[in-house]
């Protein structure tokens, strides 16, 4: 992939996910300028930090697919795999995945957050990954259910990257490095750093909890409540994604806040199982 591929690759990506939405009976939302900017920023981030994990598929000079993967120390993660609907089911996705997995050579652990597309799930399951079912939670958090006050949680930012990387090494065996800088620059950041535990959470404007990790489940729960409180304060809705059976602490809090929990695409791991006090980010794992 080169910088010239970014714009056509975002179009292939948007077309692929709009078609996936329609196949699941969901009418896709019209992409806004902010959406295109977010996609382009993400693609450039990968080209800068993970050029070896950034691949496109071309057909007759047209970009028809994209795969983005990151490598942070011993962890490889697939951030994106998408094929334009006109080119799907012809082996392009499999070849993109194979190319992007060459970037995992020598890594101890690998993670993929999958959609519910059966072609995606088959490709990951037959590439040495183990499947772990996941649920997502959505809705307006019930203010009265949120525990009063969260004195441990403070506002965070780019100054907390070293702390966050220390937590990541403990929880998922690898830091985020430049991904923390990206997330902390763009998103509201919450941090806990006391004798009982450490952790961080990122909350996007539209209410998506983008990533959360902590040294223990209680700290992770406090961080999730802080996200819920911030969303409830502005009368918005929250999305808490990527919960496996290991995230009972999060599932309990989501039900307590009266969110709607429903099945989503699975997470696939190779060389590890899902860490407990961890909610990965779709884009940055
Ligand atoms: C998922 C996606 C990337 C796969 O790419 P693709 O080019 O369409 O898929 P491929 O032709 O490479 O097929 C992949 C595998 O699925 C199999 N497959 C094809 N149709 C299938 C179906 N209807 N059900 C189950 N498996 C199917 C193929 O045989 C192949 O397996 P194999 O290599 O062992 O034979 C693409 O369809 C897509 O962009 N989907 C929407 C976005 C998405 O969900 N992305 C994944 C995000 S994690």
What would your notes on this structure say?
This protein is an alpha+beta fold and 285 residues long. The chain has helices at residues 6-23, 33-49, 92-101, 118-125, 161-172, 178-186, 217-233, 248-256; strands spanning 54-59, 62-72, 75-83, 109-113, 130-139, 154-155, 188-194, 197-203, 209-214, 238-243, 260-270, 278-279. Strand 1 and strand 2 (62-72) form a beta hairpin. The protein is built from eight helices and twelve strands. Helices cover 35% and strands 29% of the residues. Strands 1-2-3-4-11-5-10 form a seven-stranded mixed sheet, sandwiched between helices. It has a five-stranded antiparallel sheet with strand order 6-7-8-9-12, sandwiched between helices. The chain binds coenzyme A (COA). Residues 16-17, 20, 81-83, 88-94, 114-115, 117-120, 122-123, 126 line the site of coenzyme A.
Brief characterization of the structure:
With 285 residues, this protein is of the alpha+beta class.
Walk me through the topology.
Blueprint (H helix, E strand, L loop, with lengths): L5 H18 L9 H17 L4 E6 L2 E11 L2 E9 L8 H10 L7 E5 L4 H8 L4 E10 L14 E2 L5 H12 L5 H9 L1 E7 L2 E7 L5 E6 L2 H17 L4 E6 L4 H9 L3 E11 L7 E2 L6
Parallel strand pairs: 3-4
Antiparallel strand pairs: 1-2, 2-3, 4-11, 5-10, 5-11, 6-7, 7-8, 8-9, 9-12
The structure holds coenzyme A.
Q: Considering DSSP H and I runs of 4 or more, what fraction of the residues is helical?
A: 25-40%
Helices and strands, in order, run as HHEEEHEHEEHHEEEHEHEE
Q: Helical region count?
A: 8
Radius of gyration: 18 Å
